[in-house]
Amino acid sequence: MRRNWYRRLLLSYFPIFLVTVTILVFLSFLVVNEISRKETSKADAISTRFIMENVERSVTDIEMNVLKDLQASSTYPSYLNGSPTGQSLLYDTVDRIRKLMDSSDLIDSVYLYRASDQTVLTHRGETDLAAFPDRDFLQQALLHPDERGWSQVRDFKDLGSTDETATRVISMYKRLPLPFGSQGIMVININMYQIERIIDSMTNGSVSFLVLRDEGGSLIFEAHNGEADGSTESGGKVLTTIHSDRLGWTFESGLKAGQLYSWVSVISYIWIVIAVLTVLLAIVYIIYISRRNYRPIQGIMSRLQSLQLRGDALPSGKDELALIDSALESLITQSRDYEKQHHENLLLQRSQLFADLIGGQDPNRDLAERLRKIGPFPESAGSGGYAVVLAEMNEYNRFQEAYSARDQNVLKFALMNVFQELAQSGNMHSWMEWLSGRRAGILVALSGEEGGQAEALRDVAASCRKWVEEKLHLSVGFGIGSAVGRLEDVEASFRSASEALQHRLSLGQETVLVGDELPKGDLSHVLPYLSMVSELVKDFRLSNDGWRNRLQELFESFRKEPLRDEAIRSLLQTLLQMLSREVGVVSEELNAQMSGEKAEAAWKMLNEAASLDEMQARFGEFMTDIYRTFVAVSETKSYRAMISEMRSYIEEHFDDPDLSLKHLSDRFQVSGKYASYLFKTEFGMKFVDFLVQLRMRRAEELLAETDQPIQDIAIAVGYANSISFGRVFKRTVGVTPGDYRRLKSRPSTPVDEAT
């Protein structure tokens, strides 16, 4: 019979499947119902707590408003003090009470008791305590003045009310003046009807019920007029009980039961027992029918066990289906690994071949055969020769910051496809590989006449640059190498394209550069600029504003005679180094500005400049900042006046052991390097030599004219001990201090002969 095995399996398992699923669905219904009841109980608790907190917040807001009004108003203290201001004060106090009542719909009434004359003032008027309808509550408040919180629900009848039915309220009183005064009491009454309306608006009488009870368990209120005996008329039970410490009420809530709820509630655990028995019977039946239906498979597997896969024994310790699965999995894994390895090898071979072509490596290997196997070009491509095009992304750091790694790869892939499509439209074929993060190499197979193809290649690069700028909002520069006829000469085309990209500053990054059209780079193009740099530094050193014109001329020369980017940056770096040697020693500020973080930041900006105009603007700003600092330092103190003052100071204090360049730099507010520079410039000697000369001259006088010990003379001329003094004296004069004194004591023996 056709598909007999399929039918047998289907007919064997389908009935028990239906029965089992039915039982499981029913059990699921019970479980879901139980979960729903628990979640409903949680939701009811959250809802009841929200209602309680809302009521507590409402009465708390009223209490806070009353306290603020009592603190802010001076009317109440005046009234309690019994100030003789006539009816005006009485009216003002009543007006404050009415405004307080109008501040909240929950407030039923507010009245003020004055202890001095036992008078009660309400919004309706003033009366004695004995005639006030609410005197019982007020007397209880006077007996317990320190009581806090809200009272239980009580009946209240206001002064002059014509309604014989009392109003149900909760009350709070405050001693005046705040917080523990004894001049009077203010009583605030909140209408229970308004609170009941709030609770009714927040409950659904057709679904749930809510009951309020006082501390004694007596019923205060039931939302939507339900029963208050622990269950509603519809059979609902209390699910949530929450006590409010602030009000002293207990909130009881639950769900009203419907017909479906009642029907589910009568389901007993007998159904669960029946379900478990059904599942057990299903298991027994499945085991039986499975063993019966497995016999044909067992016969097939006995045959498979006698076979071997490629000479290897089948793995033991597994069931028959696992053996088949293992064999199939092994075949699938081997196939995938082979495909993956083949793909990776192909990519590596492509990259290696491209590197060999542009690097000129391994010339003995058959490049044409390798190119044919990899197949980046059709077989007919390359009849007109080959050319290398280099594409380099401008402002690459901004590109990395603006896009994620995934987006960067997508944009680079789009750039590759655009160039390839444009090249194909020009009857050329291209092969692109990324050489670095910002630079891609493109090997273009030309066809037809060489001259026409070179011009067409320029048009393709220009079109690609324009399309990428408009559609992808990226700036890309292209360098086109010279066309070559053989694959072995592709290296020369690559060098030509690389050389072209070295002139982007002078020729512009938005230009498609062709290597054959650029001058050959050598030192003869750079040497004339060194004299211009030297003259610029000289004008800068002399505080001549002409340095700005020379800087402008320097950049104009860069534009007229294209130089390599490296040469331009090298010339500017040379300029900064020469300038640092000339003016960097003038002050610590200038030295830090030209060799510290500011200089590094300025050089970083120069390296990131995208054009000569941008580089000139940034370099000009940096030079201007240095010039301002240099002029400010130069104008602060004249060089010759400073060196004259410095020399006088040294001649007066040469006997100070602490006299040094550091001491002079602190004394005259100049750098130590600058002080040394001034000495060498003005006196032709170093500071140390000048100081030693003064000290030795004074030492000779003391040795010849006095009998002081050599130790005292050493201290007198600025040395801490006689050993260092003697060493310096002998090196300078030629004899030791003792020999010098003995020679000077014999007039017939000139000291000059001894020296």
TrEMBL record:
Transmembrane segments: 12-32, 260-288
Organism: Cohnella zeiphila
Single Gene Ontology MF annotation: sequence-specific DNA binding
Residue ranges annotated for the HTH araC/xylS-type domain, each copy included: 644-743
Pfam family, one: GGDEF_2
Name of this protein: AraC family transcriptional regulator
UniProt keyword terms in alphabetical order: DNA-binding, Membrane, Transcription, Transcription regulation, Transmembrane, Transmembrane helix
SMART domains from the UniProt entry: HTH_ARAC
SUPFAM superfamilies according to UniProt: Homeodomain-like
InterPro entries recorded: CdaR_GGDEF, Homeodomain-like_sf, HTH_AraC, HTH_AraC-typ_CS, Tscrpt_reg_AraC-type_HTH
Transmembrane helix recorded as keyword: yes
